[in-house]
Amino acid sequence: MPPKSSRNQRTVSDLLSLHVDQLRQCALCPGMKKPVVSGGPIVSKVLLVGQAPGDKEPVMGRPFAWTAGKTLFRWFEESAGLSEADFRGSVYMAAVCRCFPGKKETGGDRVPSREEIVNCSSWLEKEIELLRPELVLPVGKLAIEQFLASVRLDEVVGKKFRMNYAGHVFDLIPLPHPSGASPWHRMEPGKTLLNKALRLIREHPAFTAIVQSADKPGSKRQRRVARSA
Predict the structure, then answer these.
(1) Distance (Å, whole) CA 94 – CA 91
(2) Using one digit for the tens of pLDDT, what is the confidence trace for 78-115?
(3) How far apart are the two ends of the chain, measured CA to CA in Å?
(4) Does residue 35 have a cis bond before it (omega within 30 degrees)?
């Protein structure tokens, strides 16, 4: 008989896979553009919460698939040595809204309505209930404001907060959105606060465990290194 912890892990994995299957069939918001974008059923103690997909993510079939994603994954590569592939395979990637909202008449992506955000919030609550994360990383103002009253980036980036959300307690470390349209993370005080936030993430036990797991013999990272040698 397998250990109880092993059985529980498989149960979480099965439930999360079912959850993601149901998420991908969601049709609650007629104004949203399908398909639903998901990073897949990654069982993890670290959960990243984005804002909403852009127009490229539904085509590519994964969150943060375009230029903002390149910047985001470079942050983790440079600060913690974790590649995009290892990050995607080790961190559950959620979002405030999981479908592309469409474009505004004046250009640019439409901001999801309050009703659309509320409709999608049940998916995030269920993910937190299933995964019971130790660390949550909201990326961008829309994601941050789902957890904190203040969304001034200079007041929240570079800090760690203890949160109680959906009946579960975890650490929250906000990040600015890595969009090229926003200069905040490239200018002071944003640049310094971003580096401070990334250091807090790197030193968090849940994230440290992911980095250490990626470095273990037989891990995906180690196999890539072996193939390139």
Answers:
(1) 9
(2) 999 999 999 999 999 999 999 999 999 888 899 999 99
(3) 40
(4) yes
